[in-house]
Amino acid sequence: MYLLARVLSQQRKRKDAEALLRESIRILEEAGLGESPACLQRMMFHSMELMNLKQLDEAENLRRKILHIMELSKGWDSLGTTAAAVQLSVTLVALGKLRESEELLQRCLAVRKKILSEDHIQVASILVHLARLSLLRIISDIKVNNDLCRSHLVRGKRLVNDAIRIAEKILNPSREDQKKPKNAFGIELERIAATGILLEALEIVGHLDSGRMAIQAWAPANSVLLLRLPREHMKHGYFKIDVVRIPDKCWLFIWPAKYRISLRYTTLRIHFNKFEKFDYEHFEQALRRWVSLYNEPRTRNIVSNALRPLYMKCWRTLVG
């Protein structure tokens, strides 16, 4: 039943696959094997099908159950437990529970650094997840707290730069690393994972630069000048101000203040916003690098089909 469900899933018959998976898990649980590795494997695949069917609440409950079983059987200092926690964090992000997702990922990051090393590819994977989460936090907080958005931006850039550094170190190993004895198959798997992570990280770099521009646009005015003018000055729809000097690198916004227009006078509210000129070059370089890396024949052969829609998205963004 489980194997047939996997085939049906590949054929995009997700509802039929989900029903078979549910029944397969029920049989194992009734036989007292609900916490066995075989049942956990089915549960993980079942949660993925629930995510594909947009049944997010049910997917969250199932992934919490998986994490609970892993915690009881292996404890938190286990790569299997961190894998279950990462899956749960993805579901929490889809449900908008960003804070809880971030707490889980931070815990996973600490465990993987402890068990593996700070430059391991599985550490880079967590860093990419955290960087994407910082991007989502910028989007959610941009109209509420501009200073908080800036801290998310700085943190996101640091995380994604660390992920890129680790991925590039694996793809372009130093002479010392090349001399270390490693299994050829393991090296190839690591390079495949590093390529996927590098592509994801470069996409996030571009979006973080877009986020920086959005934060600037939503920044509050640095200073406000109220100017009271006779109504007759406004009757032609334009006026001239000689006494206001605008500093360099400032935006100027002028509009009538609400409830301040009387019969003889109107008050204009003049806003000065300091800004930095947005440099698209870094954004463009990241996108060009993503596209060129994906277009290499070797990369296209080893990277999963899931990244192809992402490639088209990056291409459209680059053209824009």
TrEMBL record:
SUPFAM superfamilies: TPR-like
Domain of life: Eukaryota
Gene3D superfamilies: Tetratricopeptide repeat domain
Record protein name field: MalT-like TPR region domain-containing protein
